[in-house]
Amino acid sequence: MEIQNQIAEILQSELASQKPEKIYAIVSIAEDIYALDAKNVLEVLKFVELSRPERLPSHIVGLFEYDGRIISVADIKSVLNIEPTPYDLNSKIVIINVDDNIFAIMVNKVLDVKRVDLNRIQKVPYNTEHNFIESIYDYNDSQCNILNLSAINNWIINNPDDGGYKNGFDLIPKDGYSLEILHERKLEYIEKTSKNPYAILSDKDEFVSFSVSDNKYCIKMNDIRGFYKLQEIKMTKVPCTPEFILGLVNIKGDFVCIVDVKNYFHSQKPYCNPTGTIIVLNSDEFKIGILADVIGDNIQIKPDEIVTLKRQENRNELMQYVKDGEIYLIINVPEMLSNDKLFVR
């Protein structure tokens, strides 16, 4: 019997009481905290050099080429009519897709990606002309304003100017050192995307790196279905299961079995990092996740750079890749998912 089916009987009663949830990206803009619906967020980038081919509306900081199209990068401080404050080299560009229109906004920081109980969210007790803020909830004892991204998208498209607020372009650094750094970042981004276009997320040579204790691992991007913070999900330990099974969690109605790869591959003492990230593996047949301490960078690995390790029990679940003196263990997900060890009989 599959492990996740075993736990289904234990946790079935929890399904009826589960609270509706939504995932938000939490950001800071000036001194305030805002939330963006994560389903609309395509990517978060370092602040790079932007182009300004002509006079632009004051709420547009500049233009940026993304996924083969030119998009606007907006300073929504002016849209929200809050005090203009400058951006710096640590600021971020958040790429957003609303109704197939892609644009970006400048934020000072990305604070968190958080699963929010919808019962904690309150509608704003007023109406305005544009309703840029659709609701409010408490984030770490501070008010977090949930942005109406459709309203902001309409404003950016339909307003040639925002009525005289400080020009967003004036809020970005202009000193020589900052301009040089921004230009270098743009060149790095162009080089990266020229080799790896936006479809990079489905490229067979793209891997996600992560660490578990003192070991570094990689998994093909194609073999990953999603990432979830363990702190935001209740995990239940299942009796009479192998040590490498840390427990099961319920993610969007699916019971996902969480594996400790250090115990699974190396028979080391199992450990559950309560602040770790669950990497859910991409499989229609099995619901398996791996608990990582830290998610690292994406790495391009060509087939001829992968070293096959000694097969164990006539299986080849682990391979090896070396970069800058660091050893990464590559998990062969299809081989792992075909191992009878993952099943309880």
TrEMBL record:
GO cellular component terms, A-Z: cytosol
Pfam family, one: CheW
SMART domains the UniProt entry points to: CheW
Coiled coil: none
Annotated InterPro entries: CheW (IPR039315), CheW-like_dom_sf (IPR036061), CheW-lke_dom (IPR002545)
Biological processes, Gene Ontology terms: chemotaxis; signal transduction
Transmembrane spans: none
Signal peptide stretch: none
Protein name: Chemotaxis protein CheW
Biological classification of the source: Bacteria, Candidatus Galligastranaerophilus
